[in-house]
Design a protein that fits this description.
Elements: E1 8-9, E2 16-17, E3 19-23, E4 27-29, H1 32-37, H2 43-52, E5 58-61, E6 71-73, E7 79-81, H3 88-99
Antiparallel strand pairs: 1-2, 3-4, 3-5, 6-7
Bound molecules: zinc ion (ZN).
Length: 102
């Protein structure tokens, strides 16, 4: 069985997601339906925030850019260590060793 990993988790329905809304730079909603269920939030608020602060409030897909993510999510929102993640430390070490000639 192949495990399906997701880059983000919806803050409303708690499901793993690969595309959806980023709100104010730190909250996630997987769909318009979930977005409208957020406390004190609405589609209208989203459109206003997107216009004012488009760098932090927008719709996107994360395209599984997993080299930079330490943790990933399963379909049910469980946070797991990213099995594809290569930490900076390991990267530095391998570069360091490559530079050595003995
Ligand atoms: Zn959701």
């Amino acid at each position: 069985m192949v495990i399906q990993y997701y880059s983000r988790k919806c803050d409303v329905c708690n499901k793993g997601m690969e595309e959806g809304f980023l709100l104010a730079g730190f909250e996630y909603a997987c769909s318009k339906e979930c977005l409208e269920k957020m406390p004190n939030y609405s589609w209208k608020t989203y459109l206003e925030d997107n216009a004012i602060d488009g760098d932090n409030t927008y719709y996107t897909s994360w395209e599984q850019d997993w080299n930079s993510e330490e943790t990933l999510f399963l379909a049910d929102g469980t946070e797991v260590d990213n099995p594809f993640f290569e930490s900076d430390l390991e990267l530095l070490r391998s570069r360091h060793n490559e530079g050595k000639t003995s």
